[in-house]
Amino acid sequence: MKTIIRVLLVFAVISAGGSFYPAAGQEKDGMVEYTPDFRFEDGIYLNFEQVKANKPIPKAKILTSTDYNDKDFFKNLLES
User: Fold this and answer.
1) Alpha-carbon gap, residue 54 to 37, rounded angstroms
2) What are phi and psi of 30, to 5 degrees?
3) Per the structure, how many domains does the chain have?
4) In angstroms, what CA-CA distances link 72 with 6, 43, 66, 69, 75?
5) Pick from 52, 55, 24, 23: which is nearest to 42 by CA?
């Protein structure tokens, strides 16, 4: 009988503990579900926070001699 009570007590503690401590990477706060038609803004993302907010550094704020309208703008920018 004592063994059953101990097992139930351990099970209750483990079950209750799981509800207080969410697993890493499973938090839903601040998460956005992206759809296939979601479009990211053009620019350079320096960190993941900018990606989540869709707020990159715009091309117009990047000082370079590369043409801003060139289809290979980012490729040329990173090569120079």
Assistant:
1) 14
2) 75, 10
3) 1
4) 66, 13, 9, 9, 5
5) 55
Q: Report yes or no: 28 and 42 within 8 Å, Cβ to Cβ.
A: no
The closest alpha carbon to 73, from 60, 1, 53, belongs to 60
Residue 6: domain span: 2-79
Q: Which amino acid is it at 46?
A: L
Question: Per-residue pLDDT tens for 21-76?
Answer: 555 555 666 666 778 888 999 889 999 999 889 999 998 888 888 888 888 888 88
CA distances from 48 to 41, 44, 55, 58 (A): 14, 11, 10, 16
Query: Is 11 a residue whose pLDDT tops 70?
Result: no
Question: Of 71, 48, 49, which is closest to residue 59 (Cα–Cα)?
Answer: 71
What 48-55 contacts at long range (C-beta under 8 Å, 24+ apart), as own/partner pairs, is none
